[in-house]
Design brief:
By secondary structure, the chain is α/β, with parallel strands linked by helices. The chain has two domains: 95 residues, Helicase, Ruva Protein, domain 3 (Orthogonal Bundle), CATH 1.10.8; 161 residues, 3-Layer(aba) Sandwich (Rossmann fold). It has twelve helices and five strands. Helix 10 runs parallel beside helix 12 and helix 11 crosses helix 12. The two termini are 38 Å apart.
């Protein structure tokens, strides 16, 4: 089925589709230093805390890091189902590592920790990336610092990368989690887009879809940026609605009034 706005603006593909390969990811200049810092932390075998509001680009940053981590000497394991108790969490981790899961929580933990030590003997550094970590059960958080303890806490055989919303910082600041937070030496925040980032992002996505014209008026971009609060996901959603509306009205450019209508019609932010 033909999508009208694609033809109207001569797009070869949907400009704000989420289906992008790692090589096509856009990292704004304001976040390139963060990617460098994360890669350095992993190279130093440190554990990391990465937080940010929904849609600000945490996953894009992590995918950029994944693309830069050398396959030789480093093994990345990604887990995004954080809504599990401790036993099921380790069971999931066993599956992700290709290990046969055992029945008891103790056996599951032993299998994972033994695997980490085996990788260390093979000069391979494992990195466990736990996404949506603000949803981790407390009994799992209570145990993660033990997973980082090897050879009487004298070797950094594993890096944990905990990724989540800012409330994860509040949870880790609780006294009962002090043993874990003390072992996380690098702590980063992904900030929202700047106005220049939003402008560059729109231009990049439109160009990759086959149109290198300035389809969004400058004051429309300003309103879009303010309304989305620097969230890439919200920019994608509102920009797509606006392009559809402009095509319906036979407009060749998205003006401020269309963005305003898009915000009024589709906004989900609470005041």
């Amino acid at each position: 089925m033909t999508i009208k706005y694609l033809d109207h603006f001569n797009f070869s593909t949907k400009p704000f589709s989420k289906e992008l390969g790692d090589a096509e990811l856009w990292i704004p200049p304001t976040k390139k230093a963060l990617v460098d810092d994360l890669c350095e932390a992993i190279a130093d075998h440190d554990s990391v805390l990465l937080t940010g509001e929904p849609g600000v680009g945490k996953t894009c940053v992590l995918r950029a890091v994944r693309a830069r981590i050398p396959a030789q000497g480093c093994r990345l394991t990604y887990c995004h189902n954080a809504t599990l108790g401790r036993r099921d969490f380790y069971r999931q981790l066993c599956h992700a590592l290709g290990l046969a899961p055992s029945a008891t929580a103790a056996a599951l933990f032993y299998a994972v920790s033994t695997h980490v030590q085996d990788l260390g003997r093979d000069h391979m550094h494992p990195v466990f990336l736990l996404d949506e970590a603000h949803l981790l059960h407390q009994d799992t958080l209570d145990h993660l610092h033990i997973l980082l303890n090897y050879e009487w806490d004298s070797r950094a055989l594993l890096s944990l990368v905990l990724v989540g919303l800012p409330e994860l910082e509040d949870r880790l600041a609780l006294r009962r989690n002090r043993s874990l937070i003390q072992r996380i030496h690098r702590r980063f925040r992904v900030d929202p887009l700047t106005i220049d980032d939003t402008h560059d992002y729109l231009r990049m996505r439109l160009r990759r879809a086959g149109n290198d014209k300035e389809l969004f008026a400058s004051d429309a971009i300003g309103l879009l940026h303010d309304a989305t609060r620097g969230s890439l996901r919200e920019v994608d959603r509102i920009a797509t609605w606006s392009l559809r509306e402009a095509a319906r009205l036979a407009k060749k450019r998205v003006e401020r009034d269309i963005i305003s209508r898009a915000v009024d019609t589709t906004s989900t932010f609470e005041e």
